Structure formats: structure tokens, C-alpha cells
Amino acid sequence: MDFKEASRRAAVLVEKMTAEEKISQLLYNSPAIERLGIKEHNWWNEALHGVARAGTATVFPQTIGMAASFDPDKLREAADVISTEARAKYNQSDKFGDHGIYKNLTFWSPNINIFRDPRWGRGQETYGEDPFLTAMMGCAFIGGIQGDGEFLKAAACAKHFAVHSGPEKERHFFDAVVSKQDLWETYLPAFEWAVTRANVRGIMGAYNRTNGQPCCAHTELMGEILFGKWNFEGYFVSDCGAIHDIFASHHYTDSHVESAAVSLKRGCDLNCGEIYTKLIDAYETDLITDEDLTRAATHLYAIRFMLGEFEEERPYSDIPFTTLDCPSHRALNLEMAKKTLVLLKNEDNFLPLSPEKVKTIAAVGPNVQSVRVLEGNYEGRASHYITVADGIRDVFTDSSVYVADGCKLSSGGKGTHADWFSVGSAAASNAEVTVLCVGLDSSIEGEEGAADSVKGYCDGGDRLVLTLPPVQRELVDKICDVTDNLVIVIMAGSPVDVGERARAHAKAIIQAWYPGAVGGRAIAELLAGRFSPSARMPITLPTEGTLPDFTDYSMDGRTYRFLTDAPEYPFGYGLGYTDFRYENLRTERTDEGARVTVTVTNTGGMAGEEPVQIYAKYADSRFRTPNCQLCGIKTVKLAPGESSDVIVDVDDYWLKTVDNEGNRVDPEGGVTLYAGGHQPDARSDELTGYACLRKKLEN
Predict the structure, then answer these.
(1) Which residues are catalytic?
(2) If DSSP codes are grouped into helix, strand and coil, which group holds residue 580?
(3) Cβ–Cβ under 8 Å, residues 375 and 60
(4) Which overall architecture, per CATH, does domain 341-539 show?
(5) Strands 433-439 and 462-463: what pairing?
(6) Is the distance from CB of 9 to CB of 305 less than 8 angstroms?
(7) Mean pLDDT across the chain, nearest whole number?
(8) Buried residues in 363-375 as b, exposed as e (16+ CB within 10 A)
(9) pLDDT tens for residues 663-682?
(10) Rg (CA), the chain
């Protein structure tokens, strides 16, 4: 059912409602209207990387990890599993008449904000720092959630529209000031693609203001762009409490009644919060009209019709509860987890280890036995968890595995934990190889109110520095003192600097993110060489001290596209256990943009996947342009010695650059396209040992 037909049917139903009933339906916890046969409907549900907060579900790697796969097709498979489990849960909840919170099919996911600053605690929920990668992954996720059937399998909701990425502590009163160029070049593309290409059916407005106006009552973002230029067909919901902030924190209106009225009239259909209870006062004082109420209610009921709620035979009603975290879903979860692990360093091919030859392994660190670190935030509850220690024991069956936490994430080494360091050191000093699992978890990076503050390190969910917490830095030093055969596994939702000594001393370093319920198994299989890692960094790890002020939303000096200093680990970078050669780059113009063809050969000794990356460089002196811009990706799997002509189609959208007024224009000096397994910058060339191919795109 398309939106037009659903809206027609919705309008017939909404016409039967009184003004008071319409108002009641604009609250996220919409009550039943028994005289019309309408059930209660709580719109709030979450599914960033699995159905969250509602019992057993497949817990996939956190979003930032899945972004590291650079594989939209695999992400769509994961999202399809998520929507299957969503239907399974809904079928049971509906059977028992439970339509409360976390029970329905309207999911406030994905988060397609740009991870512009690696200190942001909620960056783990995003697809990284790049607008193209975020757009591609976001569209893939939306496609998997919503499906291709006659009815929506579930309804996705892209958030937080549109300029939102910290600081968490200031989100309720902050004004994100951005130029037109940054708005259209960085912050809007993923939302534009979600609306115009993926037909996302929900948009959530952010807490903050953008250029002076609250994001849930924004004339330009909502009226001119979303409902105007993009012709959005879906519903708009406020973040939870955001309309309360319009008066209480932003002081944009003179009362909550006025806040409710201005939000509704500017296009916010649904209030997560209670301020829309004030709409009755707004209606009685002529601040809003019945037409305003009808429009919003019709948008909301169109989605419910598209989900098949009012059909005699409910769609997808045959999906059983037994699909939840079932063996086939766990198998896909393991595939996904393997594709998230970024190999940052592998000195002298130290990895992979041989399970037959390595007799003793120390598995050390505060995350080595942690379940919480597997999950990230907005998590479900898996039926099976495999920690890193579990995975190493399972894969290295002939090895003795010495396990020690060494310290806590952000405390330890003192008082009751005085012996923790020595236990970790003892394990490491008596093992042939030490696997040191350090990093963070959602207790110290995450959303405001959901993460702890650690003095001098993190505040309100955001980090203050890019290094490890002090106690972990001390643990790393002590482990470096007692072993040379060290593998560091960084488990975090953001890039973490383990320190100069550790980077130099460790034989191998792996960025593992929050790898999902079976992530420990994936890490162990990587260590044992059961697959060649193929993940790439979806966000830059800059060198310490080079970041702009966190509150500055200008893109100058941020992300790989506008950095001026060489980073520690660049966006798009990652190593494998096999090598790929690129040659014979060809480019041609097409009606839709450009077609890029490059020959890729596996020149190494094992089969492997390679995420082929295409970048554009724009020649234009009239305004600032990015250092380069990712514009195409395709994963190819090759056996040793095998070659393939990889074809990547680049949409014309990404062949244009953005001027100072926010217009997409053809660069005056044309476009040069680059192909390789990383971005075309000196630091990536240095780390990988080769440069990307390049070719000017002819008109």
C-alpha cells in the first residue's frame, strides 16, 4: 500500500474523530478510541542494531561497527532479520492485547547523524563521519526494516533531524550554528537520501536548535526542505521531551501551549512527551485549527494502515516467536561481527596465530569477560553471549588461556583492587601471546543521562579526551613491561588512542567496536586466521590536540574531508591477511552519473573480501571543497590469484560539490576519481604501502 492510498483510508477514519480524540492520537502513547474500534498504540520502539528493550532478540554489532563493514548489502540482511524479529514480537504482543511501549512496529531507528567529533558519546549509534557512507548504510537499513512487500514490515524513522551531534549535556538548550555549505554538504545528505531514495516513513526532530530555531518547530528544515523540497511522505515525531524544551530551555516561545501550537503547525505530527496535551488549550484559543489536527492525525494513521493494522488478515502474521535469536540469525550475526573488525596494525604478519602452535594465551583487560561491552547502547537481550575470553577458549582449544581483568574500565589498581594489575601482569608474563582488551562501554560513553561521568575523562556521555581512561593507560604500560607478543583489542563505540608506547610496542592492534552478542567468537576467529579481516574505519582517529572545539559545528578541520593534520588512523583504512592489487582504472559518464571499473586481484595467500572504495576530488577555487569525498563502495570476494573487474556506479549527486549557498554545482575544474582499498591521502598510503589509482572523469 503506498502512502497516497494509505492517506486516503486514514482520512476517512480521522474524519470520524472529535478534536479531542485527534489530539489524543498525537501523543506517542496514543490511547484507544473504542467507539471507532481503534486500539491503543505506543509509537516508541527502538531497533538500532536489533530489537531493543523488549526481551530476547538478536543483538547485532553496534551501528558504528556495522558501518565499518562498508557493506550496505550485508547491513540490509541484518535489518531484515531485525524486522522479522519485530514482527514475531508484535504478533505475540497483539495476541495478548499489549500495545504499550516497545511492543509496536514503529521503530525510531536509524540514527543517521554525522559523527563529526569522535568525542561524541552517541556517535556509536551512527554510521560514522561521512555523508555518503551514512546515506548508503542508512538507506540499506531502512530497506531491510521496511521491506518490499505490499505492507510495511515495520516503519523506520531516521533521526535526529537534522544538525545534531553533541555535546550531550547541552542538547536541551544548544544552538547548532551551521553555514549553508556545511548544512547541505555534510548534515543533510543522509536525510535527503533516506527520504527521497529509501522512502523512510518517519523522521525524528532533534532536541537542539539549528541556526536559532528549535528542530521540532523549524520553518526551513521542516517546511521548506523536508515537506517542501523533498516531499516527505510519512510522519514527523519529536525527540522525547524536545517540545518541552522549546519553552523551558530554548525560551523560543512564551508558554508550553504556544510550543505545542508552533510545533504542530510547522509539521511535528507526534509528540514524544506530554506537551501536546496542551493542544486542547491551543485549539480553544485559536492557535491551531481542526485542519492542523486532521493533517497530523492523517499522517500518523497512514503509517498504521501501511503496516496492515486495520486489515482483516494481518500481514506477516505467520512469523513465529521462535525466530528470535534463532540459529540462522545468530549465524548471520557472526558473519556481520567478522565484517566489523578493523585490523589497524599487524607488524611482520604477527597475526594470524596458529591454534595448534600457541600453547599459552593471556586474555587480559577490563573488557575481556564483559557482556556489556558486546552490546553498546539501545540494546536487546540475546539468548547467547560469547565474550572475548569465551571465544578464545572455544577457538584455541589446545591452548591454556589465562584470564584476568587487570583493572576496571575507569577505576582499579587502588584499595580493594590493589592486586588487579599484578594479576594481569602475571598472566601476560607467563603466556606466549597476550590479548589485551581495553576500551570503553556504554556506561561511560553514550546518551545524556544514561552514561556516567568520570572526572577529567568523560562528562554526560561524551569524552573529554581521545585516550584510554587513566587506569587503563596504566594497565597497558604494565603489560607492555612484561611481554613483547602483545595484541591490543580496542572495544569502544568511537576511536580510542591507546598511546604512543602501546602503538609502537604491540605486534597487532584491532578496533573491535561493540561487536554484538557473538562478537567474542568473531575476534577469536580473526586471531586464528579463520578469515581475512576486511573492515575499514568509518571515522578518523585524529592526533591528540588537533580537534576544534566540540561546540563548533563548522566542518573546518573535521573528518577526513577537511582535516589539515595527518591523523593517527584515517577514515577508510584497514588491513587484511591477504593483499589486493588495483589496476586498469576506467571511468565513463552515464545518464545517472559515472561508471567506474577497476581490475582487482587477490595477490595474497588466502581468500578475502575487499571493500573497493571510490573517491572524488573536486577542482574548484570558488569555495572550500573537501580533501576528497567517498562516492562509491562495493565489496568483492576473491580467492588467491583471482581477479575481477569491479564495477561501481557513482550517482551524479556525489559528482557535484556544494557552494557557499548550499547549491550542488559542477566543479569548474572537473572531477578526478580515485579507486583503492582506502582513501587517497598520504597517511593511508604510508600505512598500506600503496597509492590509489586515479583518473580524470571526462565530460
Answers:
(1) 239
(2) strand
(3) no
(4) 3-Layer(aba) Sandwich (3.40)
(5) unpaired
(6) yes
(7) 97
(8) bbbbbbbbeebbb
(9) 999 999 999 999 999 999 99
(10) 25
